[in-house]
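Table S2 (text version). Query chain:
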Amino acid sequence: MIRGAGRDIKVLNLFAYTGGATIAAASAGASVTHVDAAPAMVDRAKQNAASSGLATAPIRYIVDDCLKFVNREIRRGNRYDVVIMDPPSFGRGPDGEVWKLENDLYPLLKRTVEVLSDKPLFFLINSYTTGLQPTVIADLLKLALSKKYDVDVSAYELALPTDEGIELPCGCSGVATFKG
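Corresponding structure-token output:
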């Protein structure tokens, strides 16, 4: 059971890479489904979890195209309390599927809404795509979620501070928290 939730929490981590968010969620007590199209990244995530003392944690590792996986989860009736995604600007799935953030993020968001539980906690998107504004992420989250859920949405620019006192933009992050 995740600390403070008072119930078992299921997390879906899409474009999960080497598992930083997976490890954080599992460390907090959640059951995690870790999905990435790159087998090497999933192998590294398993190693990272083991190195973090989480080799036996309830983490399900999946090598798959994220949209295909979400579509199967909808058909299976599987539901999640938290969704985390870190989509790339461009990528290829295990069967050569092409991912382009500007074309594919919103359709994926709309489908992913269908795997949310009756009492979701939050939906987080990180993006390191140059030029993508936080307002765009916030608007996409509002469009995808607000018809079905009462949400608070916030988004932020991600930046690295330099010794010269400036910040180098490196993407944005948006989160929807569910009321009630």
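Notes on Table S2: Residues 52 and 90 are 30 Å apart (CA to CA). The longest strand covers residues 167-178.
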